[in-house]
Amino acid sequence: MRLTYVVALGLTLATVSGLGLPNPVAAQPNADVAKLLRVVSESGVDVLGPPRLTGHIYNDSAYRIGSVRLRIETLDASNQVVKESLAWVYVTLPARGRAYFSVRRPSSGELFRLTIESFVLIAREMVDETP
Known about the structure:
disordered N terminus, three-stranded antiparallel β-sheet, single chain
């Protein structure tokens, strides 16, 4: 009975202590995927609403991602950042694919730079390697 208690206690402690430790391997795919994402944008006009920034988010990685948060930097004439804001783009972006986005354009400024602030890594996808 005592041996069973010691083994059970040891397994419990191992499980609990393992939950508290960060997993450095889990963070690696996010960093690798982030390098393979890019945003191509343009100013759009919506007849029925406010001005928009539209474009595509490209995913050149082997992972499907979602819930992309864009950083929108408003630039002055010398390309210096004068204002920043964040916008969510709720998409499911397939591996080696692209997705359209449309976000409200900041009220001031004519020049903007969009970058990906964060995203949710959904799953690794098998992509056909043949042309």
